[in-house]
Amino acid sequence: MIEVSKLSMQAGNCLLKDISFRVETGQYAILMGRTGIGKTTILEAVCGLRSISSGAVLINHQDVTNWSPGERNLGYMPQDLALFSTMSVRSNIEFALKIRRIPKAERAVKVEELAGLLQIHHLLDRSTVALSGGEAQRVALARALAATPAALLLDEPISALDRETRLETQQLLKTVNRRTGVTVLHITHDEAEAEALADVRLQLEQDREAKTVRIRSSAT
Asked: At what angle do helices 163-180 and 104-118 cross, to 10 degrees?
């Protein structure tokens, strides 16, 4: 479960004001709004990558507002994926587990499990530099899921892909959500993508005169 309560913070030239929403455990939430309105800012605030002026962030009913990113147990997939180019696919997926000092045997089991779910067994010993766009997306998703996060945060995860790969990855995201039960908060501009994936839609709307941004929530 992700809950944001009365969050206020600056996002470029706009003020995010009293942003409140809730994504129930296992739900797939889509966050939409025009470019520059503050979608990524909200995602980074939930992750703990940006400080907020006021308000609270709760994960599974626990107030994590003052916790570091590593303490929040969240999987984050930024728009640029941020894969480690000097590591193999396997090492990228294992990265969060190594930080948590998970034993090697347990790491191997988790990597195999995710490779099966995301159909990337054949990529495990390959360099990330040699991956196609769709392959890189799957690897980044596996890395975000490796530590069994309480929630998965996705910043326009498939916007850069060609249409066929985008549709395949869209279906994969829904499958991951349903099979793992992970709560998802996903940024997109694409109405069709939102229609296909969302259990709940969150729409950021700007009051141009007041230069503030608020949020509207609706179930699908």
From this structure: 130
Domains of the chain: 2-219 (3.40.50.300)
Q: Where does residue 160 rank: exposed (0-12), middle (13-18), buried (19+ CB within 10 A)?
A: middle
Give strand ranges (E) for 25-138: 28-32, 54-59, 62-63, 74-77
Q: Which backbone phi and psi does 188 adopt, to 5 degrees?
A: -155, 160
Please give the average per-residue pLDDT across 52-66, as a whole number: 97
| The pLDDT of residue 114 is above 60 | yes
Q: Encoding tokens for residue 38?
A: 């503050």
Q: Give the pTM.
A: 0.92
How much is the mean pLDDT over the chain? 92
Predicted local confidence at residue 84, as pLDDT: 95
Q: 23 near 186, Cβ under 8 Å?
A: no
Helix (H, G, I), strand (E, B), or coil: what is residue 177? helix
Which letter, b or e, does each residue of 34-68 get, where b requires 16 or more Cβ atoms within 10 Å of its Cβ? eeebbbbbbbbbbbbeeebeebebbbeeeebbeee
Count other Cβ atoms within 10 Å, centred on residue 10. Answer: 13
Q: What average pLDDT score do residues 141-147 get?
A: 95
**11 near 37, Cβ under 8 Å?**
yes
From the list 121, 133, 220, 130, the residue with the least C-alpha distance to 168 is 133
Strands 28-32 and 183-187: parallel
In the numeric block, the tokens 């797939």 are attached to: 28
